[in-house]
Amino acid sequence: MNLENLVKEVDEIIKPELEKIDKICTKNSNKVIEAFQKCDLQEQHFNTSTGYGIDEPGRNKIEEIYSKIFKAEDSLVRAQFISGTHALALTLSALLRYGETMISITGAPYDTLQTVIGTGKEVSKSSLKAYGVKYEQIELVDNDFNVEEIKNRLSQGNVKLVEIQRSRGYSTRKSLTIEKIEAIIKEIREVNKNVIIMVDNCYGEFVQDREPIEVGADIAVGSLMKNLGAGIATSGAYIVGRKDLIELCAERLTAPGIGKEIGPSLNQNTLLLKGLFFAPQVVASSVKTAIFSSCLLEKLGYDVDPKYDEKRADIVQTILLKTEENLVKFCQGIQKGSPVDSNVVPIPSDMGGYDDKIIMAAGTFTEGSTIELSCDGPIRSPYIAYMQGGLTYDYGRYGILKAVKEMMK
Questions:
Q1: Element at 76 (helix H, strand E)
Q2: What is the mean pLDDT of residues 275-298?
Q3: Which of 131, 158, 168, 363 could form a disulfide with 340 if both were Cys (CB 3.0 to 4.6 A apart)?
Q4: Which is it for strands 358-361 and 374-378: parallel, antiparallel or unpaired?
Q5: pLDDT digits (tens, 9 = 90+) for 291-305
């Protein structure tokens, strides 16, 4: 098969889908710039702080802007968050107490969060379970919420928090659109108006033109190593939502009675603001890269999800590669197409928080930045590659073609 001719064919097929992404990008870009303007962002807010960072104006302004964009009462946006898992773990620890119950209504959460909760193969002494928090989960049915079971369980009471994971994690289920999340939140509120609804928003920001708080979630959490950092932020995560819940999270991050008042920005303000400013365009490039790869790999005979013309809820593209060799070769090809460490050869290895060996390819400017083109997957059947990112569409296409050529060898 002539790859060059196939690429030309794919480019023609996906044109209408790329135009849809451009329209979403425009809406989200308008949302961001209007928030910057309405919140009166000024040059002085780029200034940094060290030490305690008491009531720092720049940090406060960033959190005001995030609240405006997400239509939330308050937000916590800090470089001190190491990852999305860190922010999620902190949020759950802040909102749940001994004897209280959380329910995941999207089945088993992402591997690292299973360790946080205490449902993995090895139970950490620092897990929620070790501190007496109870956990239950309700599986999805045909890639949708099990409404009847969810409502029945919540009507019985004794549930403090409902967790919804928007992205698929290392599973084969589909990621959840904002419309599906909106519908289940309405169903939940029919039987329980007080339960905290938390959305793990990782990989989903700006893929659609609305976010979880807008459709009724109480709190949402995400990483700046993903969508909203745009490959510019070098650390951090965010939590947005109800003011009382954000205060609890802030007190867990710093100390009771101090909360959001302290926290030095450590030269991160400009990077966080620039990342947010470019995020709609970078997310659009990532989604376009995913669409291109989906169509191309399907033409080459692989099972892909989502299909190139499906509605997308996040930046993740999965490719079922069937063998360990294919998965390893594909990831090695992505690495070869990277701007950084392109000569490094990734191999499967053990990684903290995961039960299986993991292969990860990411020649990124910021270590672990999955909004930059990256690909990873657990070494377990059916050997699925989880690909995401692409700071620009051209660079994304380049990396995909390198990966395809590596497999075709």
A1: strand 74-78
A2: 98
A3: 363
A4: antiparallel
A5: 999 999 999 999 999
